[in-house]
Design a protein that fits this description.
The protein has about 325 residues and is mainly beta. It is built from four helices and 17 strands. Strands 3, 5, 6, 7, 12, 15 and 17 form a seven-stranded antiparallel beta sheet that branches.
Length: about 325
């Protein structure tokens, strides 16, 4: 009997400890008071795949490409992007989509039906000299990756950042007074972590991701070392210091994934580096407060802003509202 009591007490203590940990982990958002009372809806955590690289290859650059980093090739008015940089005295790089090399541990894939359509992003590069070498992998400048960001200020002198230096006396006619177009992957909801499957070959490089918050500030998250062989899921936590919410509706302010950065370290060798990427995912809280009147739209921009999460999710059970 004493043994059973001890076991029961131990179980209760463990359960309470678990509740305490969960409470600490999810304490950043509390119930919201509305005109209909407090919205006590539970959190809506989801693992969402944002990029599979089955259709579009991303752009790859090195810091030895002899280009102006403020105006990469492929930007409006710039030179055409070349996915295969001819070898120079310092470096070379190539990028393409490769079929048949998907990670077998991605359980939800139906390999019998999807096998023919599954691809991965293949990247190859090499540096002649050791030192501070870096590679940038970013979404191409295409409409599917274009995101309209609204700023918290209005200025008649506001210039499109891609053309401000090239044509300082002209304002982009397509840009409104307080908005700008950026390129990347918009994270749906309040994002907690990012993961990507990487197939390495033992090259000692480090990888990081660049995020842009709703204010336009850039944040760097660390994925870690690429010194491993075979497929491995690499993940990085999105710190709470990155602002992703406001006190007004809609409360969620999305973060945009801008690019990967691969950097050499003192252990990096001069061997060619070959990497493959697949399944870029996020763990995100897609809950948004609901209240009487939330469906009222002032105009199309207002409707689109409130439906950013639904559009990014592309969930048939939670479809985005058609804005007119």
């Amino acid at each position: 009997m004493k043994i059973k009591k001890i076991a029961l007490v131990t179980s209760i203590i463990s359960f309470l400890a678990t509740l305490a940990v969960i409470g600490i982990g999810f304490a950043e958002k509390k119930s919201e008071k509305t005109s209909n009372g407090s919205d006590l809806s539970q959190k809506e955590y989801r693992a969402v795949t944002l990029e599979t690289w089955d259709e579009t290859a991303w752009e790859v650059f090195t810091d030895k490409d002899n280009i102006n980093y403020t105006t990469y090739p492929g930007t409006p008015g710039g030179e055409k992007y070349n996915p295969d940089l001819p070898a120079t005295a310092q470096a070379f790089r190539q990028v393409k989509l490769v079929a048949g090399g998907y990670p077998r541990d991605v359980k939800y894939l139906d390999y019998k039906t999807d096998k023919a359509n599954l691809k991965v992003l293949g990247v190859k590069f090499q540096f002649t000299y050791p030192g501070n070498n870096e590679v940038t992998i970013r979404p191409p400048r295409e409409d599917k990756y274009k995101i309209k960001r609204t700023r918290d200020f209005i200025s008649e002198n506001f210039l499109d950042r891609n053309e401000a230096k090239a044509t300082p006396d002209k304002r982009d006619p397509k840009a409104t007074a307080n908005s700008i177009d950026i390129y990347g992957l918009e994270f749906p909801g309040y994002t907690k972590a990012v993961s990507v499957w990487v197939c390495g070959r033992g090259n000692d490089y480090d990888m990081e991701g660049w995020l842009e918050d709703y204010k336009g500030d850039t944040h760097i998250i660390k994925f870690g070392s690429l010194n491993f062989v075979g497929w491995r899921p690499m993940s990085a936590t999105v710190p709470d210091t990155i602002p992703q919410s406001r006190q007004v509706y809609p409360a969620t302010r999305t973060v945009v994934f801008k690019q990967f950065k691969i950097r050499s370290n003192p252990k990096s060798t001069g061997d060619p580096v070959i990497l493959f990427f697949d399944e870029l995912r996020v763990l995100t809280d897609t809950f948004e407060i609901h209240f009487d009147g939330a469906d009222l739209d002032f105009d199309k921009d207002d409707c689109d802003n409130k439906n950013r999460i639904e559009k990014a999710l592309k969930d048939p059970f939670r479809p985005a509202k058609e804005c007119k």
